[in-house]
TrEMBL record:
<protein>
    <submittedName>
        <fullName>Iron-sulfur cluster repair di-iron protein</fullName>
    </submittedName>
</protein>
<keyword id="KW-0963">Cytoplasm</keyword>
<dbReference type="Pfam" id="PF04405">
    <property type="entry name" value="ScdA_N"/>
</dbReference>
<dbReference type="Pfam" id="PF01814">
    <property type="entry name" value="Hemerythrin"/>
</dbReference>
<dbReference type="InterPro" id="IPR012312">
    <property type="entry name" value="Hemerythrin-like"/>
</dbReference>
<keyword id="KW-0479">Metal-binding</keyword>
<dbReference type="InterPro" id="IPR019903">
    <property type="entry name" value="RIC_family"/>
</dbReference>
<feature type="domain" description="Hemerythrin-like">
    <location>
        <begin position="84"/>
        <end position="232"/>
    </location>
</feature>
<keyword id="KW-0408">Iron</keyword>
């Protein structure tokens, strides 16, 4: 178990996504800050590492797993999955959540002024994520797919305009951090998505959707930060000749 304390949170989740539920229970960020070891996280958050790892082990030893093994997927397939599943989810849900939040501000803002800040934060998130996903779809993901095809054909990888894949990846990870911070504030302002006593149906639905949105975003960022991006960096290093 001592060796596991030096393992990163992100690597646990990359190997078995069911462990994400354990880390979420302890309020441990497994996506944006998944590169921290168990020891680092436990020391910073005053968590008993042995207890945490026992909980993780309980999940890992349970035989039945409906978790998809994304870690074994080809990178081009994983990039397609992220785009078709998580990018589309963001687009669809933001179109619903934005008008809902505007309505809550108009109807309940006088008694719940925190709604204005929540609306501001989510509106910023929607705009930034839209730009972020376009950069992935038009620049980063096509290059990752090109690397996969080039390796399969034993070809020579031409150098992209951005120099190395590390550059767009570093930018994407920085933007992931920004959205992680934004949603931490939304979670705090909503008392972790708990509607107030006077909440109407729209209020309750909006908070439930925000919670679901954050959970999807965590998985979305995890797939990129902990699986797709590290493997893309490794793949790029396999190309000795770069034009």
């Amino acid at each position: 178990m001592e060796n596991l304390k030096n393992k990163t949170i992100g690597s646990f989740v990359a190997e078995d996504f069911r462990t994400a539920a354990v880390f979420s229970k302890y309020k441990i960020d497994f996506c944006c800050k998944g590169n921290r070891t168990v020891t680092e996280v436990c020391e910073k958050q005053n968590i008993d590492a042995d207890t945490l790892l026992e909980n993780v082990y309980e999940v890992l030893k349970s035989g039945s797993s409906e978790s998809i093994d994304f870690n074994s997927w080809p990178l081009d397939l994983l990039a397609d999955y992220i785009e078709k599943t998580h990018h589309r989810y963001v687009e669809e849900k933001t179109n619903v959540l934005l008008p809902f939040l505007d309505k809550l501000c108009k109807v309940h803002g006088a008694h719940h002024p925190e709604l204005f800040r929540i609306n501001e934060l989510f509106t910023g998130c929607a705009g930034e994520l839209s730009q972020h996903m376009k950069k992935e779809e038009l620049v980063l993901f096509p290059f990752i797919k090109r690397m996969v095809k080039t390796k399969e054909s034993d070809g020579i990888l031409s150098q992209p305009s951005f120099g190395t894949v590390l550059n767009p990846i570093a930018m994407m990870m920085d933007e992931h951090d920004n959205e992680g911070e934004r949603f931490r504030e939304i979670a705090a302002l909503t008392d972790h998505y708990t509607p107030p006593a006077d909440a109407c149906t729209t209020y309750k639905v909006t908070f439930a959707m925000l919670k679901e949105f954050e959970e999807d975003l965590h998985k979305h960022i995890h797939l990129e930060n902990n699986i797709l991006f590290p493997k893309a960096l490794i793949l790029e290093k396999e190309f000795v000749e770069v034009e």
